[in-house]
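Reopening this one. Same input as before:
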Amino acid sequence: MRLHAGIITCITLGLASAAQAHPHIFVDAGLTLIRDAAGRVTAVDVTWRYDELYSLILLEDYGLDPDFDLSLTPAEIAQTLGFDLNWNGGFTGGLVLSQGDRALEVGTPEPISLTLLSSGQIETVHRRPVSGGEAGDVAARIFDAAFYVAFEMTLDMEAAGCAPVLVRPDLDAAYALLASAIADIGGSVDADDNFPAVGAAFADTVVFQCAG
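Same output, byte for byte:
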C-alpha cells in the first residue's frame, strides 16, 4: 500500500507542499457483510478499486497486461493476487467495524480476487473474519490514519437484512483539524515523516441498519 510514493508525487503533484501532496493514492471501497443465523457479522468482503494512475503504476511494476487488452491471464492473477495485503508502516487495513461504542475484532485478510476493469483500474477483494459482535446495526469505516491513502466508500455496500446509510465527513472540520495539527508542529511537514494522523477525520461512515 505504500509503494511508489516518489513516483506518484512527482507525476501528479510536482512541487506541491507535503500537506498538499496528501493523499497519494485514491481508493473506492465496498463492503459485503456476512452474517450468521443469529444476525451477527462473522466476516466481511472488502473491495478496493484503485485510481487510474496508481493502477497504471501497478500494472507496470508487476508486468501485467503487456498486450494492453485490459484482460489479465490466470497466471498474471495468480502471481499478483494479495499484493496489497502486505501492510507496513503501521497500516492495518483501515477497516473499523463497531456497534455503539464497541469495536468488533477484525482478523487477518485473505485474498479473493483481482480484476482489471475496462476503465484500466485494478480492483481487488479480500475477506476478513469478524468476531465480538451481536445482532443489530453495524457501523463501518475505512481509512488510513496517516492519510497516505484516501478511501471513499462509494462502491456497493451489502448485508442481508440490512440497509446501508452513507454518512459523509465534515470536510470543513477535517481541513481545519489538519491545519491546526500542522500548526502544532511548527507549520512544516517533511514528506510523510511527520504528517499528522488525520485520516479518520476525512473518513466516510456506512451504517448498516439491520433488522436483527
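So the earlier flakiness isn't reproducible anymore. For the record, The first strand starts at residue 25 and ends at 35.
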